[in-house]
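The record is passed on directly below:
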Amino acid sequence: MSKELEKKSQELEQTLAKQLDMLKKDSQDWLKVGAAVAAGALLTYGIAQAIKKKKSSDETQKAMAVLEKEGLLNKDLKKRLTQNSKSSIWPSLAQRLLILGFALAKDQLINGFFTPSTIEKEVEETK
């Protein structure tokens, strides 16, 4: 009787361990999906900011046309209005890191989809 209880206890422990492994695997998948959603949100935000800058550029052109009509537009003012803001290495570096992150995430997701999980392997071995 005690041997049966010990055997059932071991089976329950193994089942619990398998369920915990499956939960860990599922949580990793959800983390990957969350990271992909966050990256998409950042990309959308970047595109929205770029569109916003373009609209402000159109407004600058309209303002320059009004100033030119009134005769208040000189070379110095035109240069200040049309001059790009100071650029640095950070925006291009951030873009490169973002692309690298996308490539790594894609590789991890593809590898995760095409490799059988350890639980599936254990189930096949027990058969």
Summary: The two ends are 27 Å apart (CA to CA). The mean pLDDT is 78. Residues 1-81 form one domain. The chain has four helices and no strands.
